[in-house]
TrEMBL record:
This is Uncharacterized protein. InterPro entries: WD40/YVTN_repeat-like_dom_sf, WD40_repeat_dom_sf. It comes from the Eukaryota. The lineage of its organism: Eukaryota, Discoba, Euglenozoa, Euglenida, Spirocuta.
């Protein structure tokens, strides 16, 4: 499970539930302090940019932007959008589910 967070500057960052979850993409710790930008992962920069451009993220717009990077919408809650990374990318051996946190 990967959780993506917006910091106070609006930069998208990520943390991992277990350090081994994001091998080669940075360190993580148990209290979810975020240590690496999301574009260190396999997400395309253009999709990240589109997500950052949404001041009040709308699930439908997020889905549209996410499709460009093979991100498939899974579920939406009040301030979190659960997505499945790499759903449209055949190079991925498995899907990596994650949470975009809007808080």
């Amino acid at each position: 499970v990967i959780q993506l967070l917006w910091d106070h500057t609006g930069q998208v960052l990520f943390g991992a539930e277990k350090c081994g979850t994001v091998k080669g993409y940075g360190m993580c710790d148990t209290d979810w302090r975020v240590v690496e930008p999301v574009w260190q992962m396999h997400l395309h920069d253009d999709a990240v940019t589109k997500l950052l451009m949404l001041p009040d993220p709308n699930p439908r717009r997020l889905l549209t932007a996410g499709l460009d990077a093979g991100i498939r919408m899974v579920d939406v809650t009040h301030k979190k959008v659960v997505v499945d990374f790499g759903a449209g990318n055949p190079k991925w051996k498995r899907h990596n589910k994650g949470v975009f946190s809007m808080a």
